[in-house]
C-alpha cells in the first residue's frame, strides 16, 4: 500500500497541475488561476495529510511536490538582483528632470523607515495586548535543530555595533553582491544602482551620445528582464499550488495550537499595520476601497508566494497602471521597499520576539528605555533586510543580538513560520506600494518620465 499511496499522491498532484494548465488554455484570468491554485493546494494538502500521512513513503511524495515548489521559488530568487538593479538604473534613464530626485528619494525612504518604526510599536503593543510577554513555547526536535543552526548564524551579527552594521550595507565588491553572497547584498545593489544612475544624470549634458547609448542599452536590458519575469510569473498558479499543498501537508497542527495565541497576535498586528497604511493613503486622498480593489491581486500574489522580491514587477505595474504613479517613483519605492523598512519581516516580527523574550531575562518591557531602544534598533536594522526567504530571521537575529536577548525564541516559532510569513510578505509589499503612491501625490511637480510600453505579466 505504501508504494501505491505514493503513486496516488503523485497522480493527484500531476492531475491538479494539468487542470491548472487547462484553465490557462481556456484563457481563465491570471488572478482567478492564482486563487484556484491557492485553494486547490490547501484542499489537496489537507487530503493527502489526512489519508496518507502515516504511510511509510509519505516524505517521498512530499519531496516531489517540493521539487515543483522549490523550483518555482528558485526561479523567483533568480530574478531578484537583475530586477532590483535594472529597475533603479532604468528609473534614472527615464528621468527628464532631476531637480526633484532628492525629494523623491527622501520621501520614499522616510515613509519606509517611518512605517518601520510604527510597526515596531504595533508589534510591541500586540504582545502586551495578548499577554505574550514572558510566554514559553514548546521545544521539540525541529526547534532544537533550528536553534543550533541559528547559534551559528548569530556569530555573524552578535557583538557587531550598529555603526559597523550600517557600514556593511555599502558594497565593497558589487559583483559579489549581485551574486547575493551577503545578507545585505540587496541593499548594496540598490546603493550601487543609485550611484550608477546619478552618474548617468551627470554625463547627460556633456556626453549626450554616450548617455543615450547607455540609456538605450539599459532600457533594452529592462525589456528582456521583464520578459523573463513574465515567463516565470506564468508559472505562478502551479508554484502556488505546490507551495500551499506542501504547507498544509507538512504543517505541525499541534504546534499551531501551542502557538495559536502568537499566530493570532501576529495577524492582529499585521492587520492593524495594514489599516495604518490605509490611513496614510487617505491622507493623500486615495480611498481604502480604491486601494484594495486595485492592489488585491498583487497582495494575493505576495501572500501566496511569500517573496517580496518576486512581487517586484507586479508591484511596479500596479502603481503605474492602476494608480498612475510616475514610473520613476514606482521603481524607486518598489526596489527600495525590498531592503528598507519591511513592516512585516523587519518591523512587527522582531519587535514581537524581543518583547516576548525580554521578561525571561529580567527586563522590564514597560520601561521607556526598553521601548525607545526597541523602536530605534528595529528601525535601523530594517535597513538591508532582503525581500526573500530568511529576511525575517536575519532581522530578528540582529535585533535580539543588539539588545543582548536570547535568540532561542526565533527557533521556537519555526513550526508556524509559513503561516505568519504569508501575511508578513503581503504587508511588506503593501508598504512599498504605499510609499510610492504617497510620494507621487506629495511631489508638487510630478517627475516627468519618458513613456514606456506597458508589460503585461500574465495572460
CATH architecture verdict: Orthogonal Bundle
CATH topology: Proton glutamate symport protein
What CATH first level would be assigned?
Mainly Alpha
Radius of gyration, in Å, reads: 22 Å
Into which percent range does the helicity of residues fall?
Answer: over 70%
> How many separate helices?
20
Total strand count, please? 0
Termini separation comes to 41 Å
**Average predicted confidence as pLDDT:** 83
The helix-strand sequence is: HHHHHHHHHHHHHHHHHHHH
Uncertain runs with pLDDT below 50, 5 residues or more? 451-455
Approximately how much beta-strand content do the residues carry?
under 5%
- Dominant shape: globular
How many domains in all? 1
Q: For the report, how would you describe the main beta sheet?
A: none
What class do helices, strands and sheet pairing give?
mainly alpha
Transmembrane segments: 6-22, 34-52, 72-92, 104-127, 185-203, 224-244, 264-284, 361-386, 392-414
Family: Belongs to the dicarboxylate/amino acid:cation symporter (DAACS) (TC 2.A.23) family.
GO molecular function, one term: symporter activity
Pfam family, one: SDF
Amino acid at each position: 500500500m505504501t508504494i501505491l499511496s505514493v503513486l496516488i499522491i503523485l497522480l493527484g498532484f500531476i492531475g491538479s497541475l494539468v487542470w491548472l494548465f487547462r484553465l490557462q488554455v481556456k484563457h481563465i484570468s491570471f488572478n482567478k488561476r492564482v486563487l484556484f491554485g491557492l485553494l486547490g493546494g490547501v484542499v489537496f494538502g489537507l487530503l493527502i495529510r489526512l489519508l496518507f500521512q502515516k504511510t511509510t513513503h509519505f516524505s517521498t511524495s512530499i519531496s516531489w511536490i517540493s521539487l515543483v515548489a522549490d523550483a518555482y521559488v528558485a526561479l523567483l530568487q533568480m530574478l531578484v538582483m537583475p530586477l532590483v538593479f535594472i529597475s533603479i538604473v532604468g528609473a534614472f534613464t527615464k528621468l527628464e528632470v532631476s531637480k526633484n530626485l532628492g525629494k523623491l528619494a527622501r520621501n520614499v525612504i522616510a515613509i519606509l523607515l517611518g512605517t518601520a518604526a510604527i510597526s515596531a510599536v504595533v508589534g510591541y503593543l500586540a504582545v502586551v495586548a495578548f499577554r505574550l510577554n514572558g510566554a514559553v513555547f514548546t521545544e521539540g526536535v525541529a526547534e532544537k535543530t533550528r536553534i543550533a543552526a541559528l547559534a551559528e548564524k548569530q556569530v555573524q551579527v552578535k557583538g557587531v555595533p550598529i555603526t559597523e552594521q550600517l557600514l556593511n550595507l555599502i558594497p565593497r565588491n558589487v559583483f559579489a553582491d549581485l551574486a547575493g553572497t551577503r545578507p545585505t547584498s540587496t541593499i548594496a545593489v540598490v546603493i550601487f544602482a543609485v550611484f550608477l544612475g546619478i552618474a548617468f544624470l551627470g554625463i547627460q549634458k556633456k556626453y549626450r551620445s554616450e548617455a543615450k547609448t547607455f540609456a538605450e542599452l539599459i532600457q533594452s536590458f529592462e525589456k528582456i528582464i521583464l520578459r523573463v519575469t513574465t515567463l516565470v510569473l506564468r508559472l505562478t498558479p502551479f508554484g502556488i499550488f505546490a507551495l500551499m499543498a506542501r504547507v498544509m501537508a507538512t504543517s505541525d497542527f499541534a504546534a499551531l495550537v501551542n502557538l495559536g495565541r502568537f499566530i493570532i497576535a501576529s495577524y492582529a498586528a499585521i492587520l492593524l499595520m495594514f489599516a495604518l497604511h490605509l490611513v496614510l493613503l487617505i491622507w493623500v486622498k486615495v480611498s481604502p476601497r480604491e486601494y484594495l480593489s486595485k492592489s488585491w491581486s498583487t497582495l494575493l500574489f505576495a501572500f501566496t508566494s511569500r517573496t517580496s522580491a518576486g512581487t517586484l514587477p507586479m508591484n511596479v505595474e500596479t502603481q503605474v497602471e492602476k494608480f498612475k504613479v510616475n514610473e520613476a517613483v514606482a521603481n524607486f519605492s518598489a526596489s527600495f521597499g525590498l531592503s528598507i523598512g519591511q513592516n512585516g519581516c523587519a518591523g512587527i516580527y522582531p519587535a514581537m520576539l524581543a518583547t516576548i523574550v525580554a521578561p525571561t531575562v529580567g527586563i522590564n518591557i514597560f520601561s521607556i528605555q526598553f521601548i525607545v531602544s526597541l523602536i530605534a534598533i528595529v528601525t535601523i536594522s530594517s535597513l538591508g533586510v532582503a525581500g526573500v526567504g530568511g529576511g525575517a530571521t536575519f532581522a530578528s537575529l540582529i535585533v535580539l543580538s543588539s539588545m543582548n536577548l536570547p535568540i532561542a525564541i526565533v527557533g521556537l516559532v519555526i513550526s508556524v513560520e509559513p503561516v505568519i510569513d504569508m501575511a508578513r510578505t503581503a504587508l511588506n509589499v503593501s508598504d512599498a506600494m504605499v510609499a510610492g503612491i504617497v510620494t507621487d501625490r506629495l511631489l508638487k511637480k510630478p517627475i516627468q518620465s519618458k513613456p514606456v510600453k506597458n508589460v503585461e505579466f500574465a495572460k
